[in-house]
Design goal:
Blueprint: E1 2-11, E2 17-29, E3 37-51, E4 57-62, E5 66-71, E6 76-79, E7 99-101, H1 103-115, H2 117-124, H3 128-143, H4 151-156, H5 160-163, H6 176-182, H7 185-202, E8 210-217, H8 227-230, E9 241-248, E10 254-261, H9 267-281, E11 285-290, H10 297-302, E12 310-314, H11 323-330, E13 340-343, E14 346-357, E15 360-369, H12 370-389, H13 393-399, E16 405-410, H14 416-424, H15 437-442, H16 450-474, H17 481-488, E17 492-495, E18 501-503, H18 508-516, E19 524-525, H19 527-533
Parallel strand pairs: 8-11, 11-12
Antiparallel strand pairs: 1-2, 2-3, 3-4, 4-5, 5-6, 7-17, 8-9, 9-10, 12-16, 13-14, 14-15, 15-16, 17-18, 18-19
Length: about 550
């Protein structure tokens, strides 16, 4: 829930507000933070003109919206007329020059043009209103950076409102029309066909070597919109939905995805995807990266040492697999430095052993995340000390690694550190789908159907492609996309009387970020020229 935070609020003898500023604050859950939450400034409201006694609503002179009323109870803005009795006697006029956020939107749209993404989207979404609507949602999805600001409010205070102005902003709030359009299977196919063709113009091998990954879609909260998928023709008996991703091995960019029931975990499902993309998109899949649910007798027989395709899969801890017996083969080695390596500040033990599984030769990669093992053992003993003390020495030894122990199966002969990197560091796409809470704020629950959820997933995939392309520029320079968007949002602009834009003087940091993308910060901007040259739109 958002709330209003005021600063330096001063009142006169009559109780009227003389000065002071305010901002909208979001409270976000953070697992490891103190009190499990943190407060984030969503938007600065500017000067306080009036404020309700409970501080849940007020009138403000916003630098981006002008004179506006904000109500934290329903998180809404509303216009304020000059003759409103609540501001009688207040010196709020003349109105300030309205400033809108420029730096992040201009940079992202320019980047999308230079990367070819603008041309791809314009080709797929040929109706201008559909195209503009999509750009609004892309800007909102990437640049809001976790903020719960709605799409219409985000666009209203952005430079985007000047160039994407052929659609009513209020329709962006609960945009059933947009998500329905995106959920059409023809839209998905058209996008990937166009995207792959465009990428192959600069890299003829794009999509020639791909791998398949799988991640569960969230289903852990009440009234989950993903349940729409479970009850609209995919799997009426399934509580979990899985996203099958096909990614280009060199770039990590998605080239296709499909949605399957979470209770259908077999190699035939995966191989059907492999066959489908080969026929429809000329995509060739060389590798499979799978979780334990897919690792089966059929998979082992299909893909083993000497097979044409490569596979990395997590070994199930069930009958038929030497999951725990492998530990007893290597347990004396775990403390030896020659088998240890560091990955993302965690110390790992890693050892490769050739094993026989279902009469096929495979490589077993045995790992212990020693940080997790020790931390979770400590937590376990705090709650189960008597149980632990009653164990045999052998079982206590197992519990020292149990909570950080896992085994990967593969037909690839590599060093344990390298294989683990391949398994973990594919893309961060799954993070897009970790929670569906944001979905509940985008549309009323009744509007989430099979089609609209599918549309949201395609929208997320497109956003992810753009973010991954941004990271190729930012990460080598030690900058996150979040830092990029956050810092460039400080650069503002204002609309001139002739309909063009004046841009404020950028800070040194903003200039630095623009230089990474070989972009200059313009002092002035002709809107008609920008719309035509960058977005391919006429005024």
């Amino acid at each position: 829930m958002a709330f209003i935070r005021t600063q330096k609020l001063v009142r006169n003898e009559n109780g009227s507000i003389k000065s002071g500023s305010a901002a909208i604050i979001d409270v976000q859950y953070v697992k490891n933070a103190r009190f499990h939450s943190k407060q984030i400034v969503r938007e600065r409201l500017g000067r306080v003109i009036s404020l309700s006694e409970d501080k849940k609503s007020g009138i403000f002179l916003s630098p981006t919206r002008g004179l506006i009323e904000y109500n934290a109870s329903d998180d809404s803005f509303s216009s304020v007329e000059k003759d409103d009795p609540r501001i009688e006697g207040q010196e709020v006029f003349p109105s300030p020059e309205i400033h809108t956020v420029f730096g992040d939107t201009y940079l992202l749209l320019s980047f999308m043009k230079n990367s070819g993404m603008i041309d791809i989207l314009k080709t797929v979404f040929q109706k201008d209103t559909d195209y503009e609507r999509l750009l609004c949602h892309i800007l909102h999805g990437i640049l809001r950076d976790g903020s719960r600001i709605s799409c219409d409010d985000f666009i209203a205070k952005s430079f985007a409102s000047y160039v994407l102005n052929d659609i009513p902003q209020q329709t962006l709030h609960s945009d059933t029309e947009f998500f329905t359009m995106m959920g059409d299977d023809r839209t998905r196919m058209n996008f990937f066909q166009t995207f792959i063709a465009a990428m192959r113009k600069s890299d003829s091998d794009f999509g020639r070597g791909c791998y398949v990954d799988s991640t569960p879609l969230p289903n852990d909260i009440d009234d989950n919109p993903f349940n729409a998928l479970s009850c609209h023709g995919i799997a009426s008996s399934s509580d979990q939905i899985r996203l099958i991703l096909v990614l280009d091995e060199n770039s990590g960019l998605p080239v296709w995805y499909d949605i399957i029931p979470g209770n259908v975990l077999d190699i035939n499902t995966i191989m059907n995807v492999v066959a489908d993309v080969a026929e429809s998109l000329d995509i060739h899949i060389d590798s499979l990266v799978l979780d334990a649910g897919y690792v089966s007798k059929d998979l082992i027989h299909a893909i083993h040492i000497g097979s044409e395709k490569n596979m990395i899969g997590r070994m199930p801890a069930r009958k038929g697999y030497p999951y725990k017996s492998l530990y007893w083969q290597i347990h004396s080695m775990i403390g030896k430095g020659k088998y240890q390596f560091i990955r993302k500040k965690h110390v790992y033990f890693g050892r490769q052993i050739k094993v026989r599984v279902f009469d096929e030769d495979e490589y077993a990669y045995i790992y212990v995340d020693q940080n997790n093992a020790l931390q979770r053992l400590r937590d376990y003993r705090i709650d189960h000390e008597e149980e632990y003390e009653a164990m045999k020495d052998k079982d206590q030894d197992w519990y020292t690694v149990k909570f950080g122990y896992f085994v990967l199966l593969s037909n690839k002969d590599e060093k344990p550190e390298q294989l683990l990197t391949e398994y973990f560091e594919r893309t961060d796409i799954e993070t897009i789908f970790k929670t569906s809470k944001e979905y509940l704020g985008l549309l009323p629950l009744s509007k989430w159907t099979d089609t609209t959820v599918r549309g949201k997933i395609l929208h997320d995939i497109i956003n992810t492609i753009i973010v991954l392309q941004l990271r190729k520029v930012t990460l080598p320079n030690g900058i996150s996309v979040s830092a990029l968007t956050g810092k460039t949002q400080s650069l503002m602009c204002c609309l001139t009387r002739d309909g063009n834009v004046n841009v404020e003087t950028p800070s040194k940091q903003v200039k630095k970020y623009y230089q990474l993308f070989n972009e200059k910060v313009p002092a002035h901007l002709k809107l008609t020229e920008f719309k035509l040259k960058v977005l391919g739109l006429k005024m």
